[in-house]
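hi got a favour to ask and not much time before my train. below you get a single protein, a line of residues and a line of whole numbers that encode the local backbone shape. could you go over both lines and see whether the tokens make sense for that sequence. a few lines back from you is plenty, here it is:
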Amino acid sequence: MNIRLREQLKILMSAKSLKVTALSRDTGVPVPTIHGWLQGKAPRNIDQVKTVADHLSVTLDWLLYAEDTQRAKTVESRMDEINTGVWEVVLRKPKSTKEGL
């Protein structure tokens, strides 16, 4: 399984218009560490990655491997992600099998 921290972190930071310095300040993860991740270096401290994942409201699996183990999340629990552009939401009227519905 390949670590995809670099790509996933870039996606989230771009979607949230988040700078490295702000992410560092908010999470306590050093700026050089975050820069290293963005350059493709493997994380050495999983606790730091977990802190960033929690701060960005994603799972550790999603941030590291682009896999979401919590597939049963409700729309309400994903509103921050939807509002920041992490998810695209498509609304359409369902096809009804009964007349008049």
